[in-house]
């Protein structure tokens, strides 16, 4: 179902976030993430005027992960920033992501290592989407979700209890994964 029709309005700002996942020949995966902020009109920054349509932020973050979702390499790039010569000097700090697991308290460890003055607010915000992006990338490639197959398998499908729709005691699991539905407790 689409959003409701909006009241009359004018576009002023666009933030775009993308994550592309690549399987590498060496068995590792790269997650290339980017974030951009673009104003439709000229704005005055402390560093000068930024023309409308030109990015205020154009930032990139690449993490390389293994099959267990542990970061084995990381790099960042700042192609457009509001304070050139200052914002774009923090890229090396993102090496601190190496060794973190995207599945084990990643956002907490990210905050400990790169929040506030320890990193770039926008790159750190961008990093927060990496765990769910990695899960989507690995689904049916690295993680077998077993959608509609192997109903006799010994392992419960990974996606059960990972979201509202696929709660173990819910109707979607009863319909699509009947073997794994949690029966309500009766007194």
Note the topology:
Elements: E1 13-23, E2 29-39, E3 43-45, E4 48-50, E5 55-65, E6 71-80, H1 106-114, H2 121-127, H3 130-138, H4 171-176
Antiparallel strand pairs: 1-2, 2-5, 3-4, 5-6
Can you describe this structure in just a few lines?
It is built from four helices and six strands. With 187 residues, the chain is an alpha+beta fold. The longest helix is centred in the middle third of the chain and has 9 residues, at 106-114.
What labels would you give this structure?
single chain, 17% helix, globular, four-stranded antiparallel beta sheet, 187 residues, 4 helices, two-stranded antiparallel sheet, alpha+beta, 2 domains
Helix amount: 10-25%
Q: Report the structural category.
A: alpha+beta
CA-based shape? globular
Radius of gyration: 21 Å
Task: Give me the count of strands.
Answer: 6
Widest β-sheet, arrangement of strands: 1-2-5-6
**Most strands sheet:** 4 strands, antiparallel
Description:
There is one protein chain. Strand 1 (13-23) and strand 2 (29-39) form a beta hairpin. With 187 residues, the protein is α+β, with helices and mostly antiparallel strands. The model has no long low-confidence stretch (mean pLDDT 92). It has 2 domains: 13-138; 144-187, no CATH class. The chain has a 4-stranded antiparallel sheet with strand order 1-2-5-6, with helices on one face. The chain has a two-stranded antiparallel ribbon with strand order 3-4. It is built from 4 helices and 6 strands, in the order ββββββαααα. It is globular, with a radius of gyration of 21 Å. The two termini are 39 Å apart. The chain has helices spanning 106-114, 121-127, 130-138, 171-176; strands spanning 13-23, 29-39, 43-45, 48-50, 55-65, 71-80. The protein is 17% helix and 26% strand. This is DUF2889 domain-containing protein. InterPro entries: DUF2889. Pfam families: DUF2889.
